[in-house]
Structure formats: structure tokens, C-alpha cells
Specification:
The chain has about 140 residues and is α+β, with helices and mostly antiparallel strands. It has helices at about 15-30, 70-80, 100-110, 115-120, and strands spanning about 1-10, 35-50, 55-65, 85-95.
Length: about 140
């Protein structure tokens, strides 16, 4: 069996519970056809880079799959027929990533809000070695006509 990372986007106006139900439906299809789903991550509602089928936001879900190709093809076929699924992408990988995905780690980092610690304190703007400004010559202030 092959290893896959599968991400699908659901419409923004469906609830998180409906997205969970869709995920369980897709997981059931994979297990019926002899595969396993090792990890499911719900990434939440995110803004899209461009409108897809009149939607500006979507629910993102990641599934790590170990299944035969016909199981993945059936899930993709059903997602293509579903009105709630906007887009999906399946990538065959050599090894599945253990632990949280990059998107989940990114969200956890932003939740901590420790930007000041990483970049260091901001320098004081008043101690620059800049010469004082010259006084402004207002003789040409009339616009030059």
C-alpha cells in the first residue's frame, strides 16, 4: 500500500460538525477498502488566496492515509461529486510525517505570541548618529510660478 497526504477544503458556510462528518465518511471509505487513516488534522477556517466557487474562506482538513490507490481514487471521486467540497489535493509521499503538521505548528507558534523574544528588543530610535536638519528655505514655497 502507498502513503498519501490528502487535504480537502470544505465550504465556509458548513459547520465544523458537518466537516467532521465528511471526514468520518471519507475515513470509512478508506477503511472499507483496506486502508488506514493514521492522522486527521482540522486546520480550521482560513482565507483563500482567491475566490473558489464564490467562497472567500474554507474549512481545511488534512488526512494521512496508508491505502491502496483505488481507495484514494474513490474518496477523490466522492469529493468531486460533493457540493460541500471546494478543492482537494492528494500527494503520494515516501513517509508520513509524525507529530503535528507544519500548519499546526505554525498556529501554535502564533498562539504563543513570542515575537519579541525571537527578534530581540527594538532599538531606541533617538540615539542615531544623524546630523540635525537644516532649516527649510521658504523662498520657493509659492510653487515656482
Amino acid at each position: 500500500m502507498a502513503l498519501y497526504e490528502h487535504v480537502y477544503l470544505a465550504r465556509q458556510d458548513v459547520t465544523a460538525q458537518q466537516v467532521e462528518a465528511l471526514t468520518e465518511q471519507f475515513k470509512g471509505i478508506i477503511t472499507q477498502r483496506g486502508g488506514t487513516v493514521s492522522k486527521i488534522e482540522y486546520w480550521g477556517v482560513k482565507s483563500l488566496a482567491y475566490r473558489i466557487k464564490k467562497n472567500r474562506k474554507a474549512h481545511f482538513t488534512l488526512m494521512n492515509i496508508d491505502a491502496p490507490s483505488d481507495a484514494v481514487a474513490e474518496v477523490e471521486r466522492l469529493q468531486g461529486l460533493s457540493e460541500d467540497v471546494l478543492r482537494f489535493l492528494t500527494l503520494r509521499v515516501e513517509a508520513l510525517e509524525e507529530g503535528p503538521s507544519a500548519m499546526t505548528r505554525k498556529r501554535e507558534d502564533s498562539d504563543r505570541d513570542d515575537r519579541g523574544d525571537r527578534r530581540g528588543p527594538r532599538p531606541d530610535r533617538g540615539d542615531r548618529d544623524r546630523p540635525p536638519r537644516r532649516p527649510r528655505d521658504d523662498s520657493n514655497a509659492g510653487g515656482g510660478f
